[in-house]
Write a structure and sequence with these properties.
The complex is a heterodimer of chains A (287) and B (362). Chain A contains seven helices and 14 strands. Chain A is α/β, with parallel strands linked by helices. Chain A is globular and about 45 Å long. Chain B: It comes from Thermalbibacter longus.
Chain lengths: 287, 362
Protein backbone atom coordinates (compact mmCIF):
# COMPACT_ATOMS: atom_id res chain seq x y z
CA UNK A 1 0.00 0.00 0.00
CA UNK A 2 1.32 3.42 -0.89
CA UNK A 3 2.37 5.57 2.02
CA UNK A 4 0.46 8.76 2.60
CA UNK A 5 2.68 11.78 2.07
CA UNK A 6 2.43 14.65 4.50
CA UNK A 7 3.65 18.21 4.06
CA UNK A 8 4.21 20.39 7.10
CA UNK A 9 3.96 24.15 7.36
CA UNK A 10 5.42 26.20 10.17
CA UNK A 11 8.67 27.08 11.82
CA UNK A 12 10.62 26.69 15.02
CA UNK A 13 10.12 24.17 17.80
CA UNK A 14 6.47 23.51 16.94
CA UNK A 15 7.42 22.43 13.42
CA UNK A 16 10.38 20.38 14.65
CA UNK A 17 8.16 18.48 17.09
CA UNK A 18 5.52 17.85 14.45
CA UNK A 19 8.15 16.66 11.95
CA UNK A 20 9.55 14.32 14.59
CA UNK A 21 6.08 12.90 15.22
CA UNK A 22 5.46 12.45 11.46
CA UNK A 23 8.81 10.73 10.93
CA UNK A 24 7.96 7.98 13.40
CA UNK A 25 4.29 7.60 12.55
CA UNK A 26 3.71 4.37 10.60
CA UNK A 27 1.92 4.71 7.29
CA UNK A 28 3.00 8.21 6.38
CA UNK A 29 6.04 9.77 4.78
CA UNK A 30 7.19 13.31 5.35
CA UNK A 31 7.17 14.95 1.93
CA UNK A 32 8.44 18.35 2.95
CA UNK A 33 8.38 21.14 5.48
CA UNK A 34 8.07 24.80 4.59
CA UNK A 35 7.77 28.19 6.21
CA UNK A 36 4.31 29.79 6.23
CA UNK A 37 4.11 31.82 3.01
CA UNK A 38 6.41 29.53 1.02
CA UNK A 39 4.97 27.40 -1.83
CA UNK A 40 3.09 24.43 -0.43
CA UNK A 41 4.84 21.05 -0.51
CA UNK A 42 3.56 18.44 -2.94
CA UNK A 43 1.90 16.06 -0.50
CA UNK A 44 -1.35 14.15 0.03
CA UNK A 45 -2.04 15.90 3.33
CA UNK A 46 -1.04 19.35 4.52
CA UNK A 47 -0.75 20.19 8.19
CA UNK A 48 0.25 23.48 9.73
CA UNK A 49 2.05 23.60 13.06
CA UNK A 50 1.79 27.37 13.29
CA UNK A 51 1.61 28.50 16.85
CA UNK A 52 1.57 32.27 16.31
CA UNK A 53 -1.21 34.49 14.99
CA UNK A 54 0.81 35.62 11.97
CA UNK A 55 1.70 32.08 10.91
CA UNK A 56 -1.93 31.05 11.07
CA UNK A 57 -3.05 34.05 9.03
CA UNK A 58 -0.47 33.35 6.31
CA UNK A 59 -1.71 29.80 5.87
CA UNK A 60 -5.33 30.85 5.22
CA UNK A 61 -4.30 32.81 2.14
CA UNK A 62 -2.18 29.90 0.94
CA UNK A 63 -5.00 27.40 1.30
CA UNK A 64 -7.46 29.56 -0.62
CA UNK A 65 -4.99 30.43 -3.34
CA UNK A 66 -3.88 26.84 -3.90
CA UNK A 67 -7.33 25.33 -3.49
CA UNK A 68 -5.86 22.90 -1.00
CA UNK A 69 -7.20 21.68 2.31
CA UNK A 70 -4.95 22.34 5.29
CA UNK A 71 -5.34 21.23 8.89
CA UNK A 72 -4.15 23.87 11.28
CA UNK A 73 -4.63 25.37 14.76
CA UNK A 74 -7.71 27.58 15.18
CA UNK A 75 -7.82 30.85 13.30
CA UNK A 76 -7.64 34.20 15.00
CA UNK A 77 -8.72 36.35 12.09
CA UNK A 78 -12.41 37.12 11.70
CA UNK A 79 -12.28 38.57 8.19
CA UNK A 80 -14.09 37.39 5.09
CA UNK A 81 -11.10 35.36 3.97
CA UNK A 82 -11.14 33.38 7.20
CA UNK A 83 -14.88 32.78 6.96
CA UNK A 84 -14.54 31.71 3.34
CA UNK A 85 -11.71 29.33 4.21
CA UNK A 86 -13.72 27.72 7.00
CA UNK A 87 -17.01 27.62 5.11
CA UNK A 88 -15.38 26.01 2.06
CA UNK A 89 -13.48 23.49 4.17
CA UNK A 90 -10.13 24.78 2.89
CA UNK A 91 -9.08 25.18 6.48
CA UNK A 92 -9.77 22.40 8.94
CA UNK A 93 -9.17 23.55 12.50
CA UNK A 94 -7.55 21.33 15.11
CA UNK A 95 -6.73 22.64 18.56
CA UNK A 96 -3.16 21.70 19.52
CA UNK A 97 -4.59 20.90 22.96
CA UNK A 98 -6.14 17.69 21.62
CA UNK A 99 -2.55 16.51 21.39
CA UNK A 100 -2.72 15.90 25.15
CA UNK A 101 -4.18 12.47 25.83
CA UNK A 102 -5.87 13.51 29.11
CA UNK A 103 -7.69 16.33 27.33
CA UNK A 104 -8.83 14.00 24.53
CA UNK A 105 -10.06 11.63 27.22
CA UNK A 106 -12.03 14.40 28.94
CA UNK A 107 -13.63 15.40 25.65
CA UNK A 108 -14.62 11.83 24.80
CA UNK A 109 -16.04 11.11 28.24
CA UNK A 110 -18.08 14.31 28.32
CA UNK A 111 -19.46 13.63 24.85
CA UNK A 112 -20.36 10.10 25.95
CA UNK A 113 -22.44 11.64 28.73
CA UNK A 114 -20.38 10.27 31.60
CA UNK A 115 -20.68 13.43 33.70
CA UNK A 116 -24.47 13.47 33.52
CA UNK A 117 -25.91 16.97 33.28
CA UNK A 118 -22.97 19.35 32.79
CA UNK A 119 -22.74 22.17 35.35
CA UNK A 120 -19.55 23.92 34.37
CA UNK A 121 -16.19 23.73 32.70
CA UNK A 122 -13.18 25.49 34.13
CA UNK A 123 -10.03 25.73 32.02
CA UNK A 124 -6.81 27.47 32.79
CA UNK A 125 -3.68 27.87 30.71
CA UNK A 126 -0.78 29.64 32.40
CA UNK A 127 2.27 30.47 30.32
CA UNK A 128 5.61 32.14 30.93
CA UNK A 129 5.48 35.93 30.94
CA UNK A 130 7.51 36.18 27.77
CA UNK A 131 4.73 34.32 25.93
CA UNK A 132 2.35 37.29 26.02
CA UNK A 133 2.70 37.75 22.26
CA UNK A 134 0.99 34.37 21.76
CA UNK A 135 -1.83 35.08 24.20
CA UNK A 136 -4.60 35.26 21.62
CA UNK A 137 -3.43 32.08 19.92
CA UNK A 138 -3.53 30.23 23.25
CA UNK A 139 -7.06 31.53 23.92
CA UNK A 140 -8.13 30.37 20.47
CA UNK A 141 -6.68 26.89 21.12
CA UNK A 142 -8.51 26.63 24.44
CA UNK A 143 -11.78 27.99 23.08
CA UNK A 144 -11.76 25.60 20.14
CA UNK A 145 -11.10 22.67 22.46
CA UNK A 146 -13.91 23.70 24.82
CA UNK A 147 -16.40 24.04 21.99
CA UNK A 148 -15.56 20.51 20.94
CA UNK A 149 -16.14 19.22 24.47
CA UNK A 150 -19.48 20.97 25.00
CA UNK A 151 -21.97 20.96 22.18
CA UNK A 152 -24.68 23.21 23.58
CA UNK A 153 -24.93 26.58 21.78
CA UNK A 154 -23.20 29.56 23.36
CA UNK A 155 -25.77 32.23 24.17
CA UNK A 156 -23.79 34.91 25.99
CA UNK A 157 -20.15 35.68 26.67
CA UNK A 158 -18.20 38.03 28.87
CA UNK A 159 -14.48 38.59 28.38
CA UNK A 160 -11.76 40.73 29.78
CA UNK A 161 -8.32 41.23 28.29
CA UNK A 162 -5.79 42.80 30.62
CA UNK A 163 -2.18 43.88 30.80
CA UNK A 164 -1.35 42.75 34.31
CA UNK A 165 2.38 42.25 34.18
CA UNK A 166 3.64 44.63 31.50
CA UNK A 167 2.60 47.01 28.76
CA UNK A 168 1.26 44.27 26.50
CA UNK A 169 -2.01 42.41 27.14
CA UNK A 170 -1.10 39.20 28.92
CA UNK A 171 -4.32 37.85 30.43
CA UNK A 172 -7.70 36.71 29.16
CA UNK A 173 -10.66 35.96 31.41
CA UNK A 174 -13.81 34.72 29.74
CA UNK A 175 -17.15 33.38 30.92
CA UNK A 176 -19.43 31.60 28.43
CA UNK A 177 -23.10 30.91 29.08
CA UNK A 178 -24.37 27.88 27.14
CA UNK A 179 -27.98 27.25 26.20
CA UNK A 180 -28.17 24.26 28.56
CA UNK A 181 -27.02 26.60 31.39
CA UNK A 182 -23.50 25.21 31.51
CA UNK A 183 -21.06 27.91 32.60
CA UNK A 184 -17.60 27.92 31.07
CA UNK A 185 -14.77 29.81 32.75
CA UNK A 186 -11.52 30.38 30.87
CA UNK A 187 -8.32 31.92 32.18
CA UNK A 188 -5.34 32.28 29.85
CA UNK A 189 -2.46 34.21 31.34
CA UNK A 190 1.17 34.76 30.49
CA UNK A 191 1.78 35.05 34.21
CA UNK A 192 4.39 32.49 35.25
CA UNK A 193 7.31 34.48 36.60
CA UNK A 194 10.94 33.88 35.70
CA UNK A 195 12.21 31.07 37.88
CA UNK A 196 8.80 29.44 38.26
CA UNK A 197 9.62 25.74 38.10
CA UNK A 198 7.00 24.72 35.52
CA UNK A 199 7.23 25.71 31.84
CA UNK A 200 3.45 26.01 31.59
CA UNK A 201 0.29 24.92 33.38
CA UNK A 202 -2.83 23.52 31.81
CA UNK A 203 -5.88 22.49 33.83
CA UNK A 204 -9.36 21.45 32.70
CA UNK A 205 -12.13 20.56 35.15
CA UNK A 206 -15.60 19.58 34.00
CA UNK A 207 -18.27 19.33 36.68
CA UNK A 208 -21.53 17.50 36.17
CA UNK A 209 -24.35 15.86 38.07
CA UNK A 210 -22.70 12.44 38.00
CA UNK A 211 -18.98 13.05 37.85
CA UNK A 212 -16.16 15.53 37.89
CA UNK A 213 -13.37 15.13 35.34
CA UNK A 214 -10.08 16.83 36.06
CA UNK A 215 -7.12 16.79 33.70
CA UNK A 216 -3.82 18.49 34.30
CA UNK A 217 -1.59 17.11 31.55
CA UNK A 218 1.36 19.38 32.26
CA UNK A 219 1.72 18.18 35.83
CA UNK A 220 3.97 15.32 34.81
CA UNK A 221 7.46 16.55 35.52
CA UNK A 222 10.69 15.72 37.27
CA UNK A 223 11.26 18.32 39.97
CA UNK A 224 14.91 19.04 40.68
CA UNK A 225 15.90 21.24 43.60
CA UNK A 226 19.39 22.69 43.62
CA UNK A 227 21.55 23.45 46.63
CA UNK A 228 20.47 27.10 46.55
CA UNK A 229 16.86 26.00 46.96
CA UNK A 230 15.74 26.83 43.42
CA UNK A 231 13.51 24.23 41.83
CA UNK A 232 13.17 23.35 38.18
CA UNK A 233 10.55 21.11 36.67
CA UNK A 234 11.67 19.10 33.68
CA UNK A 235 8.55 18.00 31.83
CA UNK A 236 8.25 14.39 30.85
CA UNK A 237 4.70 14.51 29.58
CA UNK A 238 4.35 12.95 26.15
CA UNK A 239 4.96 15.35 23.29
CA UNK A 240 1.49 16.50 22.23
CA UNK A 241 2.63 16.78 18.61
CA UNK A 242 1.91 13.11 17.99
CA UNK A 243 -1.68 13.51 19.21
CA UNK A 244 -2.10 16.69 17.20
CA UNK A 245 -0.83 14.92 14.07
CA UNK A 246 -3.32 12.07 14.56
CA UNK A 247 -6.20 14.48 15.11
CA UNK A 248 -5.22 16.52 12.05
CA UNK A 249 -5.00 13.44 9.83
CA UNK A 250 -8.36 12.19 11.09
CA UNK A 251 -9.97 15.57 10.54
CA UNK A 252 -8.61 15.78 7.00
CA UNK A 253 -10.15 12.36 6.27
CA UNK A 254 -13.63 13.60 7.13
CA UNK A 255 -15.62 14.20 3.99
CA UNK A 256 -18.18 16.33 5.82
CA UNK A 257 -16.33 18.13 8.62
CA UNK A 258 -18.46 19.94 11.22
CA UNK A 259 -19.06 23.63 10.67
CA UNK A 260 -16.41 25.77 12.27
CA UNK A 261 -18.52 28.91 12.05
CA UNK A 262 -19.71 28.39 15.63
CA UNK A 263 -16.15 28.79 16.83
CA UNK A 264 -15.71 31.92 14.76
CA UNK A 265 -18.92 33.47 16.11
CA UNK A 266 -17.91 32.81 19.71
CA UNK A 267 -14.40 34.13 19.16
CA UNK A 268 -15.85 37.23 17.55
CA UNK A 269 -18.20 37.71 20.53
CA UNK A 270 -15.33 37.33 22.99
CA UNK A 271 -13.32 39.98 21.20
CA UNK A 272 -16.34 42.31 21.18
CA UNK A 273 -17.04 41.68 24.84
CA UNK A 274 -13.43 42.43 25.73
CA UNK A 275 -13.47 45.65 23.73
CA UNK A 276 -16.83 46.85 25.00
CA UNK A 277 -16.33 45.52 28.55
CA UNK A 278 -19.89 44.23 28.41
CA UNK A 279 -21.41 40.81 28.06
CA UNK A 280 -22.42 40.02 24.47
CA UNK A 281 -25.40 37.92 23.47
CA UNK A 282 -25.11 35.32 20.71
CA UNK A 283 -28.57 33.85 20.96
CA UNK A 284 -29.48 34.84 17.44
CA UNK A 285 -26.39 33.37 15.82
CA UNK A 286 -26.95 29.83 17.05
CA UNK A 287 -23.28 29.59 17.95
CA UNK B 1 -7.55 36.31 84.83
CA UNK B 2 -11.32 36.50 84.88
CA UNK B 3 -12.90 34.39 82.21
CA UNK B 4 -15.08 36.30 79.79
CA UNK B 5 -18.68 35.10 79.81
CA UNK B 6 -20.06 34.29 76.39
CA UNK B 7 -23.49 33.54 74.97
CA UNK B 8 -24.03 31.86 71.63
CA UNK B 9 -27.02 32.84 69.49
CA UNK B 10 -27.95 30.14 67.00
CA UNK B 11 -27.02 26.52 67.66
CA UNK B 12 -27.16 25.21 64.13
CA UNK B 13 -24.58 23.66 61.85
CA UNK B 14 -21.77 26.20 62.09
CA UNK B 15 -22.21 26.66 65.84
CA UNK B 16 -22.08 22.97 66.63
CA UNK B 17 -19.38 22.04 64.14
CA UNK B 18 -17.04 24.98 64.70
CA UNK B 19 -17.90 27.66 67.28
CA UNK B 20 -19.04 25.65 70.27
CA UNK B 21 -16.16 23.13 70.04
CA UNK B 22 -13.71 26.06 69.80
CA UNK B 23 -15.28 27.79 72.83
CA UNK B 24 -14.98 24.55 74.77
CA UNK B 25 -11.26 24.42 73.93
CA UNK B 26 -10.90 28.02 75.12
CA UNK B 27 -12.27 27.16 78.57
CA UNK B 28 -9.35 28.94 80.26
CA UNK B 29 -10.48 32.21 78.73
CA UNK B 30 -14.18 31.83 78.04
CA UNK B 31 -17.11 30.56 80.07
CA UNK B 32 -20.06 29.44 77.99
CA UNK B 33 -23.07 30.84 79.85
CA UNK B 34 -26.03 30.38 77.56
CA UNK B 35 -27.19 29.24 74.15
CA UNK B 36 -30.21 30.50 72.22
CA UNK B 37 -31.91 28.81 69.29
CA UNK B 38 -35.46 29.06 67.98
CA UNK B 39 -35.61 25.27 68.12
CA UNK B 40 -36.00 24.46 71.83
CA UNK B 41 -34.72 20.91 71.50
CA UNK B 42 -31.63 22.09 69.61
CA UNK B 43 -30.88 24.79 72.18
CA UNK B 44 -31.36 22.41 75.11
CA UNK B 45 -29.28 19.67 73.55
CA UNK B 46 -26.42 22.02 72.64
CA UNK B 47 -26.45 23.54 76.14
CA UNK B 48 -26.23 20.07 77.67
CA UNK B 49 -23.47 18.84 75.39
CA UNK B 50 -21.33 21.98 75.47
CA UNK B 51 -21.88 22.78 79.15
CA UNK B 52 -23.91 26.01 79.04
CA UNK B 53 -25.84 26.74 82.24
CA UNK B 54 -28.89 28.07 80.40
CA UNK B 55 -30.66 27.91 77.09
CA UNK B 56 -33.32 30.05 75.46
CA UNK B 57 -35.63 30.01 72.49
CA UNK B 58 -35.69 33.81 72.35
CA UNK B 59 -32.23 35.34 71.91
CA UNK B 60 -33.45 38.52 73.64
CA UNK B 61 -33.52 36.67 76.95
CA UNK B 62 -29.88 35.76 76.43
CA UNK B 63 -28.73 39.30 75.74
CA UNK B 64 -30.80 40.60 78.66
CA UNK B 65 -28.54 38.73 81.06
CA UNK B 66 -26.20 41.20 82.73
CA UNK B 67 -23.56 38.55 83.34
CA UNK B 68 -22.74 38.01 79.63
CA UNK B 69 -19.80 40.00 78.25
CA UNK B 70 -19.95 38.98 74.61
CA UNK B 71 -22.16 37.15 72.20
CA UNK B 72 -21.26 34.94 69.28
CA UNK B 73 -23.95 35.15 66.59
CA UNK B 74 -24.16 31.96 64.53
CA UNK B 75 -27.55 32.48 62.89
CA UNK B 76 -28.34 32.99 59.18
CA UNK B 77 -27.30 36.34 57.76
CA UNK B 78 -30.83 37.69 57.47
CA UNK B 79 -30.99 37.73 61.28
CA UNK B 80 -27.56 39.22 61.94
CA UNK B 81 -28.50 42.90 61.90
CA UNK B 82 -31.40 42.64 64.30
CA UNK B 83 -29.50 40.43 66.73
CA UNK B 84 -26.17 42.30 66.53
CA UNK B 85 -27.82 45.69 67.01
CA UNK B 86 -29.86 44.38 69.95
CA UNK B 87 -26.76 42.87 71.54
CA UNK B 88 -24.77 46.08 71.06
CA UNK B 89 -27.60 48.12 72.56
CA UNK B 90 -27.45 45.76 75.55
CA UNK B 91 -23.72 46.52 75.89
CA UNK B 92 -22.47 43.16 74.65
CA UNK B 93 -19.44 42.82 72.43
CA UNK B 94 -20.42 41.06 69.22
CA UNK B 95 -18.69 38.37 67.21
CA UNK B 96 -20.88 37.51 64.21
CA UNK B 97 -20.65 34.80 61.58
CA UNK B 98 -20.11 35.72 57.93
CA UNK B 99 -21.62 36.99 55.74
CA UNK B 100 -22.05 40.14 57.78
CA UNK B 101 -25.66 40.71 56.75
CA UNK B 102 -28.05 40.43 53.83
CA UNK B 103 -27.75 44.07 52.75
CA UNK B 104 -25.29 46.93 53.04
CA UNK B 105 -27.83 48.95 54.99
CA UNK B 106 -27.93 46.23 57.62
CA UNK B 107 -24.14 46.06 57.71
CA UNK B 108 -23.90 49.81 58.19
CA UNK B 109 -26.50 49.66 60.98
CA UNK B 110 -24.41 47.02 62.76
CA UNK B 111 -21.27 49.15 62.57
CA UNK B 112 -23.16 52.21 63.77
CA UNK B 113 -24.71 50.35 66.70
CA UNK B 114 -21.32 49.04 67.84
CA UNK B 115 -19.81 52.54 67.68
CA UNK B 116 -22.77 54.12 69.42
CA UNK B 117 -22.57 51.69 72.31
CA UNK B 118 -18.80 51.45 72.58
CA UNK B 119 -18.66 47.70 72.00
CA UNK B 120 -16.42 45.63 69.78
CA UNK B 121 -17.80 44.15 66.58
CA UNK B 122 -16.00 41.57 64.49
CA UNK B 123 -17.30 39.45 61.64
CA UNK B 124 -16.01 35.88 61.65
CA UNK B 125 -14.28 35.60 58.31
CA UNK B 126 -12.66 32.39 59.44
CA UNK B 127 -10.17 32.17 56.59
CA UNK B 128 -8.40 35.25 57.91
CA UNK B 129 -7.45 33.06 60.87
CA UNK B 130 -6.03 30.02 59.09
CA UNK B 131 -2.30 29.47 58.81
CA UNK B 132 -2.51 29.07 55.06
CA UNK B 133 -4.13 32.39 54.29
CA UNK B 134 -2.21 34.21 57.01
CA UNK B 135 1.01 32.93 55.50
CA UNK B 136 -0.07 34.08 52.03
CA UNK B 137 -0.97 37.52 53.43
CA UNK B 138 2.36 37.72 55.28
CA UNK B 139 4.32 36.88 52.14
CA UNK B 140 2.43 39.52 50.18
CA UNK B 141 2.94 42.11 52.92
CA UNK B 142 6.67 41.38 52.96
CA UNK B 143 6.86 41.93 49.22
CA UNK B 144 7.71 38.34 48.33
CA UNK B 145 5.80 38.53 45.03
CA UNK B 146 5.76 42.27 44.42
CA UNK B 147 2.45 43.96 43.64
CA UNK B 148 -0.44 41.50 43.45
CA UNK B 149 -1.95 41.45 39.96
CA UNK B 150 -4.00 38.25 39.76
CA UNK B 151 -5.81 36.19 42.42
CA UNK B 152 -7.53 32.94 41.49
CA UNK B 153 -9.42 31.05 44.19
CA UNK B 154 -11.65 28.16 43.19
CA UNK B 155 -13.71 26.26 45.72
CA UNK B 156 -15.46 22.94 45.30
CA UNK B 157 -17.78 21.46 47.90
CA UNK B 158 -19.39 18.06 47.64
CA UNK B 159 -23.14 17.88 47.89
CA UNK B 160 -22.94 15.82 51.07
CA UNK B 161 -20.17 17.93 52.59
CA UNK B 162 -21.68 18.00 56.03
CA UNK B 163 -22.41 14.30 55.99
CA UNK B 164 -18.84 13.51 56.99
CA UNK B 165 -18.93 15.81 60.00
CA UNK B 166 -21.27 13.73 62.13
CA UNK B 167 -23.32 16.80 62.87
CA UNK B 168 -25.71 16.74 65.76
CA UNK B 169 -28.10 19.10 64.04
CA UNK B 170 -29.42 19.80 60.57
CA UNK B 171 -29.75 23.19 58.92
CA UNK B 172 -32.65 25.22 60.23
CA UNK B 173 -35.76 25.10 58.07
CA UNK B 174 -37.85 28.15 59.03
CA UNK B 175 -40.96 26.76 57.36
CA UNK B 176 -40.28 23.17 58.16
CA UNK B 177 -39.29 22.02 54.68
CA UNK B 178 -36.42 23.50 52.73
CA UNK B 179 -33.36 24.53 54.80
CA UNK B 180 -32.86 28.30 54.95
CA UNK B 181 -29.61 28.03 52.97
CA UNK B 182 -31.46 26.59 50.00
CA UNK B 183 -34.51 28.86 50.20
CA UNK B 184 -34.80 31.96 48.04
CA UNK B 185 -36.81 33.59 50.82
CA UNK B 186 -33.79 33.56 53.14
CA UNK B 187 -30.62 33.11 51.11
CA UNK B 188 -29.01 34.69 48.06
CA UNK B 189 -27.01 31.56 47.36
CA UNK B 190 -23.35 30.86 46.79
CA UNK B 191 -22.37 34.51 46.27
CA UNK B 192 -22.98 35.17 49.94
CA UNK B 193 -22.81 31.71 51.50
CA UNK B 194 -19.33 30.84 50.25
CA UNK B 195 -18.09 33.49 47.90
CA UNK B 196 -18.00 36.12 50.61
CA UNK B 197 -14.87 34.25 51.71
CA UNK B 198 -13.37 34.65 48.25
CA UNK B 199 -14.39 38.30 47.93
CA UNK B 200 -12.86 38.99 51.34
CA UNK B 201 -9.63 37.18 50.47
CA UNK B 202 -9.36 39.00 47.15
CA UNK B 203 -9.58 42.40 48.88
CA UNK B 204 -7.14 41.26 51.53
CA UNK B 205 -4.56 39.97 49.07
CA UNK B 206 -4.83 42.74 46.51
CA UNK B 207 -4.93 45.43 49.21
CA UNK B 208 -7.33 47.30 46.96
CA UNK B 209 -11.02 48.11 46.61
CA UNK B 210 -13.06 46.44 43.89
CA UNK B 211 -14.40 48.58 41.08
CA UNK B 212 -16.59 46.13 39.18
CA UNK B 213 -17.53 42.49 38.84
CA UNK B 214 -19.01 40.21 36.23
CA UNK B 215 -20.62 37.11 37.69
CA UNK B 216 -22.57 34.19 36.30
CA UNK B 217 -24.57 31.90 38.57
CA UNK B 218 -26.85 28.95 38.18
CA UNK B 219 -28.95 26.53 40.16
CA UNK B 220 -27.78 22.97 39.61
CA UNK B 221 -29.76 21.19 42.31
CA UNK B 222 -32.98 19.82 40.81
CA UNK B 223 -35.82 21.89 42.23
CA UNK B 224 -33.31 24.23 43.86
CA UNK B 225 -34.14 27.88 44.46
CA UNK B 226 -30.79 29.60 44.99
CA UNK B 227 -27.61 29.50 42.91
CA UNK B 228 -25.14 26.86 44.03
CA UNK B 229 -22.66 27.45 41.20
CA UNK B 230 -20.94 30.78 40.67
CA UNK B 231 -18.10 32.09 38.54
CA UNK B 232 -16.87 35.67 38.48
CA UNK B 233 -14.15 38.14 37.48
CA UNK B 234 -13.46 41.24 39.61
CA UNK B 235 -11.50 44.34 38.61
CA UNK B 236 -9.77 46.23 41.41
CA UNK B 237 -8.75 49.90 41.63
CA UNK B 238 -5.10 48.81 41.58
CA UNK B 239 -5.68 47.17 38.19
CA UNK B 240 -5.48 43.69 39.71
CA UNK B 241 -7.97 41.00 38.72
CA UNK B 242 -9.50 38.39 41.01
CA UNK B 243 -11.48 35.44 39.75
CA UNK B 244 -13.22 32.48 41.33
CA UNK B 245 -15.36 29.53 40.43
CA UNK B 246 -17.47 28.16 43.28
CA UNK B 247 -19.17 24.78 43.00
CA UNK B 248 -21.33 23.51 45.86
CA UNK B 249 -22.72 20.47 44.14
CA UNK B 250 -19.92 18.02 43.47
CA UNK B 251 -21.27 14.50 43.32
CA UNK B 252 -21.18 12.79 46.71
CA UNK B 253 -17.80 11.33 47.58
CA UNK B 254 -15.71 13.94 45.81
CA UNK B 255 -13.30 15.77 48.07
CA UNK B 256 -13.67 19.35 49.16
CA UNK B 257 -11.02 21.28 47.29
CA UNK B 258 -9.55 24.78 47.15
CA UNK B 259 -7.22 26.23 44.57
CA UNK B 260 -5.52 29.50 45.45
CA UNK B 261 -3.01 31.23 43.21
CA UNK B 262 -1.72 34.73 43.78
CA UNK B 263 0.41 36.18 41.00
CA UNK B 264 2.44 39.30 41.63
CA UNK B 265 4.77 41.41 39.55
CA UNK B 266 7.79 39.60 41.00
CA UNK B 267 6.56 36.10 41.76
CA UNK B 268 3.70 33.75 42.39
CA UNK B 269 2.21 31.92 45.37
CA UNK B 270 0.26 28.70 45.05
CA UNK B 271 -1.57 27.38 48.11
CA UNK B 272 -3.81 24.69 46.74
CA UNK B 273 -5.36 21.74 48.54
CA UNK B 274 -3.93 18.48 47.33
CA UNK B 275 -6.35 17.06 44.78
CA UNK B 276 -6.80 14.07 47.05
CA UNK B 277 -7.29 13.78 50.77
CA UNK B 278 -4.67 12.61 53.28
CA UNK B 279 -6.72 9.44 53.51
CA UNK B 280 -8.42 7.67 50.62
CA UNK B 281 -10.64 4.61 50.62
CA UNK B 282 -11.01 2.79 47.31
CA UNK B 283 -14.09 0.61 47.06
CA UNK B 284 -16.04 -1.09 44.33
CA UNK B 285 -18.63 1.69 44.52
CA UNK B 286 -16.07 4.48 44.33
CA UNK B 287 -13.66 6.45 46.42
CA UNK B 288 -14.16 8.10 49.79
CA UNK B 289 -12.13 10.75 51.58
CA UNK B 290 -13.05 10.43 55.25
CA UNK B 291 -10.52 12.95 56.56
CA UNK B 292 -10.91 15.42 53.77
CA UNK B 293 -12.88 18.13 55.55
CA UNK B 294 -11.12 18.00 58.89
CA UNK B 295 -7.68 18.08 57.27
CA UNK B 296 -8.29 20.86 54.80
CA UNK B 297 -5.86 23.67 55.10
CA UNK B 298 -8.60 26.26 55.22
CA UNK B 299 -10.30 24.74 58.26
CA UNK B 300 -7.28 24.24 60.48
CA UNK B 301 -7.79 25.89 63.89
CA UNK B 302 -9.50 28.83 62.28
CA UNK B 303 -12.47 29.11 64.60
CA UNK B 304 -10.38 28.69 67.72
CA UNK B 305 -8.00 31.40 66.53
CA UNK B 306 -10.88 33.65 65.49
CA UNK B 307 -12.75 33.44 68.80
CA UNK B 308 -9.53 33.69 70.85
CA UNK B 309 -8.51 36.80 68.91
CA UNK B 310 -11.87 38.44 69.55
CA UNK B 311 -11.78 37.55 73.25
CA UNK B 312 -8.28 39.05 73.44
CA UNK B 313 -9.37 42.35 71.93
CA UNK B 314 -12.30 42.52 74.34
CA UNK B 315 -10.05 41.79 77.31
CA UNK B 316 -7.32 44.21 76.21
CA UNK B 317 -9.73 46.82 74.89
CA UNK B 318 -7.87 46.81 71.57
CA UNK B 319 -9.17 46.94 68.01
CA UNK B 320 -10.53 43.65 66.61
CA UNK B 321 -8.04 42.02 64.23
CA UNK B 322 -10.61 42.23 61.45
CA UNK B 323 -12.28 45.61 61.00
CA UNK B 324 -16.04 45.26 60.38
CA UNK B 325 -15.56 47.61 57.42
CA UNK B 326 -13.56 44.88 55.65
CA UNK B 327 -16.45 42.46 56.14
CA UNK B 328 -18.86 45.11 54.90
CA UNK B 329 -16.82 45.62 51.73
CA UNK B 330 -16.59 41.87 51.10
CA UNK B 331 -20.37 41.77 51.45
CA UNK B 332 -20.69 44.66 48.97
CA UNK B 333 -18.70 42.69 46.42
CA UNK B 334 -20.78 39.56 46.99
CA UNK B 335 -23.99 41.56 46.59
CA UNK B 336 -22.55 43.02 43.38
CA UNK B 337 -21.96 39.44 42.21
CA UNK B 338 -25.62 38.64 42.83
CA UNK B 339 -26.73 41.74 40.91
CA UNK B 340 -24.38 41.02 38.01
CA UNK B 341 -25.55 37.45 37.68
CA UNK B 342 -29.16 38.66 37.65
CA UNK B 343 -28.52 41.41 35.09
CA UNK B 344 -26.13 39.44 32.89
CA UNK B 345 -23.77 42.41 32.74
CA UNK B 346 -20.83 43.74 34.75
CA UNK B 347 -21.85 45.76 37.81
CA UNK B 348 -19.84 48.50 39.47
CA UNK B 349 -19.49 48.71 43.21
CA UNK B 350 -20.51 52.34 42.93
CA UNK B 351 -23.87 51.20 41.52
CA UNK B 352 -24.38 48.80 44.41
CA UNK B 353 -23.61 51.57 46.90
CA UNK B 354 -26.00 53.92 45.09
CA UNK B 355 -28.69 51.26 45.10
CA UNK B 356 -28.23 50.96 48.86
CA UNK B 357 -28.55 54.72 49.33
CA UNK B 358 -31.70 54.66 47.23
CA UNK B 359 -33.15 51.99 49.49
CA UNK B 360 -32.23 53.99 52.56
CA UNK B 361 -33.97 57.03 51.16
CA UNK B 362 -37.07 55.08 50.18
Amino acid sequence: MRELTVGLIGRGDALDSLAHAARYRPGIRLAGRVDPGAPLPDADRLICAGSSSSERAAVVALALAAGRRIAMPPLLALDDEARRALASGSIVQVSPLVGYAPLREVAQRVRRGEIGRPYGLFALHHLPRDAAADLDARLADLLHYVLEVLESPVVRVYARRSALFGEQDDTWHAILHLADETLVTLEVAACLPAGWPEPERLLVEVTGSDAVLRAEPTRQAVHATKRDGSTRAVPWWPDPSAGYLEAALARLEQTDPPSELRYLEVLSALLSAATEQQAVRLADTGA
Amino acid sequence: MRRLRIGVIGAGTIAQSAHLPAIRRLADELELVAIADVRAEVAADAARRFGAEAWYVDYRELIARPDIDLVDICTPEFLHCEQAVAAAEAGKHVLCEKPMASTLQEADAMIAAARRNGVKLMIGHSRRFTRRYQEVARLIREGAVGAVRLVRENERRPRAMYGGLELQVSHWAPEGGRPWLASAAYSQGAALTNAVHETDLARWFTGSEALSIYAAARVTEPGGEVPDFLTYVVTFASGAIAAAEIVNQLPAGYPYYHMLEVVGTDGMIRATDPPMSPMEIWRADGMAYPLNFSHLLHVDDAYLQEIAAFARCVREDSEPPLDPWDARQALALSIAAVRSSQLGQPVTLAAVEAEGKGLQGA
